[in-house]
Amino acid sequence: MLVGLASRIWREGIRSSCRLADGFIFFGGGVETTEVWTRLRERVARVGRSVDEFGGDYVALSGGDVGELTREIEAWRNAGGTHVSVVTMGLGLDSVDADIDYISSLSGRLGLS
């Protein structure tokens, strides 16, 4: 029962986003997220909105594995994702400098620096 209700709520959220929102925020999910993002953009186009003006933020929850995180973000970029947020809480980074080093390492692997 709860699974069916959650599924119905999810579908309605997607429909509303396509009609009304500036974009959509995904939390984790890896490759599956890019598949949902592609379908979401198709729905945006079907309701007559500009796909290029509909943003998509991927909140990466991959943990400390920079290689896995890099693969997720590259898949997101290739699917047309427009924004990425990287969660560093819970990674055991013990200072602001450690956070900056982590993000810099990721940035370098993505060719952003």
Task: Characterize this entry briefly.
The chain has 113 residues and is α/β, with parallel strands linked by helices.
How would you summarize the topology of this molecule?
Elements: H1 2-20, E1 23-27, H2 31-46, E2 55-60, H3 66-78, E3 83-86, H4 96-109
Parallel strand pairs: 1-2, 2-3
Helix pairs in contact: 1-2, 3-4
What does this structure look like?
The structure is a single chain. The protein has one domain (2-109). It is 55% helix and 13% strand. It has 4 helices and 3 strands; from the N terminus they run αβαβαβα. The chain has helices spanning 2-20, 31-46, 66-78, 96-109, and strands at 23-27, 55-60, 83-86. The protein is elongated and about 45 Å long.
Helical amount = 40-55%
Residue fraction in strands: 5-15%
The span between the termini is: 49 Å
Dominant shape: elongated
Order of helices and strands: HEHEHEH
How many β-strands, per DSSP?
3
Q: What low-confidence regions span 5 or more consecutive residues with pLDDT below 50?
A: none
Strand order of the largest sheet: 1-2-3
* Averaged pLDDT: 85
* Count of domain modules: 1
Q: Output the structural class.
A: alpha/beta
Largest sheet: 3 strands, parallel
The total of helices stands at 4
What's the Cα radius of gyration?
A: 16 Å
